[in-house]
Amino acid sequence: MEITLKNLQKKIPIPNAKILKAIQHAINSSPLRGEARWGCSNLSIVFTGSERMRTINKKYLGHDYVTDVLTFDLGEGQAEIIICPQVAVTNAKAHQTSTEKEIILYVIHGILHLAGYDDHSPKDILKMRKMEKVILDVI
């Protein structure tokens, strides 16, 4: 699988090496390895500022606010995960964790969406949080 990291913001440092390691682990060494739904061969992860994230969220999902992570399955094995590190800073403080760990959580969250997990109903949210924890506990 080809993985591309693009940093379009300059405020928050991005731990590229740790992110790449987390992605490889999530795909190859976790319960996702056996997921029939996983079919991504080219994954692009884009780190962007708040304003661009808000614009993308409004354009594609109709939500006029900044969010932490958006995931797009572009078809034919192509996918893109867009992450807002500024939201990670805020959420890391609220959850008493590091910004780096929060960003890696967003990467794993996006990968789970690409593998078919959803977070719209309480039952789906619980299932996704459980899988996030399983993956993050072994990274």
Detailed description of the structure:
This protein has 139 residues and is of the alpha/beta class. It has one domain: Collagenase (Catalytic Domain) (3-Layer(aba) Sandwich). Helices cover 48% and strands 18% of the residues. It has five helices and four strands, in the order βαβαββααα. The protein has helices at residues 16-28, 50-61, 85-94, 99-114, 122-137, and strands spanning 2-7, 42-47, 69-75, 78-83. Strands 1-2-4-3 form a four-stranded mixed beta sheet, with helices on one face. α1 (16-28) links the parallel β1 (2-7) and β2 (42-47). α1 packs parallel to α4 (99-114), α3 (85-94) crosses α4 (99-114) and α4 crosses α5 (122-137). The mean pLDDT is 91.
Write the SSE topology:
Layout: E1 2-7, H1 16-28, E2 42-47, H2 50-61, E3 69-75, E4 78-83, H3 85-94, H4 99-114, H5 122-137
Parallel strand pairs: 1-2, 2-4
Antiparallel strand pairs: 3-4
